[in-house]
Design a protein that fits this description.
The complex is a heterodimer of chains A (about 550) and B (about 220). Chain A is mainly alpha-helical and about 550 residues long. Chain A has 18 helices and four strands. In chain A, strands 1-2 form a two-stranded antiparallel sheet. Chain A has a two-stranded antiparallel sheet with strand order 3-4. Classes of the chains: A mainly alpha (about 550), B mainly alpha (about 220). Chain B: One of its GO terms (cellular component) is plasma membrane.
């Protein structure tokens, strides 16, 4: 069998397994977020928090919950790293410096998982398992909570209430993320991922002597790293490390984990707004973009344009033998079209166009299918923009899901759209204009520019993958990427929740002959076009200076 | 004013309590439960898939690539792995000598990478051309001259393994056909016929080769 055919079959296997879990998982999540019942462990948790889970919150209260929980999380994770040197169970590793500790705390709370440290030599068991892995769960649950609040904004009328943040947070963890993680972690261990609490120990080698290994609760962290679209590796090499991703099957399983919740949330959305077909339209839009990117990525990586790759006879630099070109390309697209940022191969050593695709995937706003929660709310904001554009064309007040998209709604959607590009392009421009930041580049010319553009794109979009040639462990990059991650995560959430509040207050608009049918393929096409135009107008000049210049020169 | 400060304080306290409870659930109970089950069900894999040779000596992990050197140069008796130029050394916590996984992160037009690939190709051709068997540059597969993502790739492609057969046979005084069969026996196909890529585990192959050579 040719590698290309094997790649296509792996893609089809992914489509099939995602399809099989779409209905049960999507419906399960809809029940979780609509149920009136509380499980017993959840009641204990609410009592410990001191929360009343049945109290409905208006958008400002919901937002205050998100921000308070996240602020406490940043502070806790920062202090945990700063105290690592004195904590037991830390393998004797030293405390993390303030700039790096801030960067890492911001990174994991913002669901980005950008890493300016090398896991195996910096973070002990306590920080990895008790700090970073916990944020993998809760930052994902926060994203899902905000998405569900927006969906409720569409579904509810004449109320300002969007649900209870604490209940949504706890349910997301207890009823969705934890059960899948337990099963998934065991699947990964069965494939060969490690799961222990060993200290650093010596293991014999073939030619004599020993090598030093550190143990760790790797499988349990790996599974939620993918499932929660987090992406922070236990080891420096992330999912390229054989202890995180031991074989082709674990690789395909990890790609599945990355995609399963973001895709299934469109079903949850359809259920909750009372029209499954509205969910299918969003799903179709996401799937078209994902499949298109995957096809392009496989094509360019198999074609291996670039001096070094042509010399080598294949683009295998930075890729593992057991995954090959196909398994690596599938992973690279899934990780950058969601907010994951885990890597099983190193994007900096992709072909010029391949690297450009990973950048562009993030710049779409990570909405195809996007991060857990953030993908859905990002896509719904795009849908609001699309109905607005359609409304302009026919001269009608735009509506979406029975809600008027008026001045207030469109302003909030536009603000949402502007945040990330402003952060990405602003920080990139400043970093390049200053004398020292460019010293961090490994490659020069167009690729060096891409390293910095990639870093801020990844940070502000909460992806976390890197053109890792960039030495990002400097005070400048730690501080600015840390800020980009926090602002890129929480400012959009402010606009999303405000939008949700505005929508929930409205009375429904009856469907008439003139209503744009947003459940039809035509609308999905319009949505794809809108995403393309908005992203293209925003990022084309920057992409032309980086990956396009490199790809055309090859 | 005082009212809102009190509110903010109460909210932050609730956030802290939520974080602590969820840390207990997701950061303590969950990993301990998974570790417990994993140790019972898959003890070898949970601890790193350690591999022993015929004498019962631990020779590493079947998942972690090693180097097979004589001094600084490749020991040509053994099958050689892929280059691993992305591997790092401890820069923090230097009391340890941990293997630091990683990639080179060089782009296709990078002068370093072009030089490394050129040199690696020349070395593979030189090392594997033995009397009566010449390796041509176009026979060298891509994995033989490029570094992997982790720097710890335990595998090479079947093409690269077969390319080394003549050399390994000559250096160990074995018949080429015998070593060929050894490589074939250690070649894993795609899982279920289409998942992943065909590959040869270098450590497992070398352990078997050593056994064969010792029996000779």
């Amino acid at each position: 069998m040719s590698p290309v055919l094997a790649g296509v079959l792996q893609l089809l296997a992914l489509v099939a397994t995602l399809g099989l879990s779409y209905r049960p998982l999507g419906d399960h999540m809809a029940r979780v977020y609509s149920s009136e019942r509380h499980l017993r462990p959840e009641k204990w948790i609410y009592r410990a928090i001191g929360a009343r889970p049945d109290t409905g919150m208006r958008w400002p209260a919901y937002l205050r919950g998100v921000l308070a929980f996240s602020a406490v999380s940043v502070l806790f994770l920062y202090l945990l790293q700063r105290a690592q040197g004195s904590l037991p169970g830390s393998l004797g590793f030293v405390s993390i410096d303030p700039d790096q500790a801030f960067n890492t705390a911001a990174s994991f709370v913002a669901n980005t998982n950008w890493q300016s440290y090398a896991g195996e030599q910096a973070m002990g068991h306590v920080v990895q398992t008790g700090g970073l892995a916990v944020q993998n769960f809760v930052s994902a649950a926060v994203g899902m909570a905000v998405a569900v609040a927006l969906v409720r904004g569409f579904a509810r009328t004449r109320t300002g209430e969007l649900g209870n943040f604490w209940a949504d947070l706890v349910r997301g963890v207890v009823r969705i993320l934890l059960p899948i993680s337990v099963i998934g972690a065991l699947v990964l261990v069965a494939c060969g991922a490690i799961q222990n609490f060993s200290g650093i120990h010596e293991v014999g080698q073939f030619t004599g002597g020993t090598q030093q290994w550190n143990g760790g609760a790797v499988a349990s962290q790996e599974v939620i790293k993918e499932l929660g679209t987090n992406g922070g590796g236990y080891f420096n090499a992330n999912s390229a490390h054989p202890f995180e991703n031991p074989n082709g099957l674990s690789n395909l399983f990890e790609i599945y984990l990355i995609l399963v919740i973001p895709f299934a949330l469109t079903r949850t959305f359809g259920r909750m707004v009372g029209s499954l077909r509205q969910g299918y339209a969003i799903l179709g839009t996401m799937a078209v973009i994902w499949l298109g990117f995957t096809a392009l990525m496989m094509w360019t990586e198999f074609a291996h344009k670039g001096t070094a790759f042509e010399l080598a006879g294949g683009a295998m630099e930075g890729k593992e033998t057991r995954f090959g070109i196909a398994g690596s390309s599938l992973f690279a697209v899934a990780t950058t079209l969601t907010s994951t940022g885990a890597v099983n191969s190193f994007h900096s050593s992709y072909t010029g166009f391949g690297g450009g695709l990973t950048l562009l995937g993030m710049q779409l706003g990570e909405i195809a299918p996007g991060g857990v929660g953030s993908g859905l709310y990002g896509m719904l904001v795009m849908a609001v923009i699309a109905v607005f554009l359609a409304g302009l064309m026919v001269g009608r007040t735009p509506e979406y899901l029975g809600k008027k998209i008026g001045t207030r709604e469109i302003k909030l959607a536009a603000c949402y759209l502007l945040v990330t590009p402003a952060l990405v392009l602003g920080f990139t421009a400043v970093a390049l204009a200053l004398p020292t930041p460019p010293h961090s580049m490994t490659n020069s010319g167009a690729h060096g520019f891409s390293e910095i553009l990639y870093a801020y794109t990844s940070g502000a979009n909460n992806n976390g993958s890197a053109f890792a040639g960039l030495n990002a462990d400097t005070p400048w990059f730690n501080a600015t990427i840390g800020l980009a991650m926090l602002l890129g995560r929480f400012l959009p959430m402010v606009f999303v929740l405000a939008l949700a509040g505005a929508l929930a207050e409205q009375r429904p608009v009856p469907v008439t002959a003139g209503t744009l049918r947003t459940e039809k393929p035509l609308f999905a096409g319009l949505l794809v076009g809108t995403i393309g135009i908005v992203t293209g107008l925003t990022y084309f000049p920057a992409l032309a200076l980086g990956p396009l210049a490199e790809g055309l020169a090859a | 004013m005082n009212h809102s400060v009190g509110n903010t304080g109460r909210l932050l306290a609730a956030g802290l309590r939520a974080l602590l409870v969820l840390t207990l659930v997701c950061g303590v109970l969950y990993p301990l439960a998974v570790t417990g089950i994993a140790r019972l069900a898959f003890p070898g894999r949970a601890n790193g898939s350690e591999l022993r040779d015929a004498d019962g000596r631990t020779v590493g992990s079947s998942l972690i690539g090693q180097t097979y050197l004589a001094g600084d140069a490749p020991d040509l008796r053994w099958f050689q792995p892929r280059p691993s130029r992305g591997l790092g050394t401890n820069s923090a916590n230097t009391r340890y000598d941990l293997v630091l996984s990683g990639a080179t992160n060089r782009s296709g037009d990078n002068a370093d990478l072009i030089g490394w690939v050129t040199d690696a190709k020349a070395a593979v051709v030189r090392d594997n051309s033995v009397a009566g068997h010449t390796v041509r540059p176009e026979d060298v597969p891509a994995d033989a001259v490029t570094s992997s993502g982790s720097g710890l790739d335990p595998h090479i492609s079947p093409e690269y393994a077969r390319l080394q057969v003549h050399r390994v046979a000559a250096r160990n005084g074995l018949a080429v056909a015998r070593v060929d069969r050894l490589v074939a026996a250690h070649t894993d196909g795609r899982i279920l016929g289409f998942i992943g890529e065909p590959r040869v585990n270098v450590l497992e192959l070398n352990v078997a080769l050593k056994e064969l050579a010792d029996r000779q």
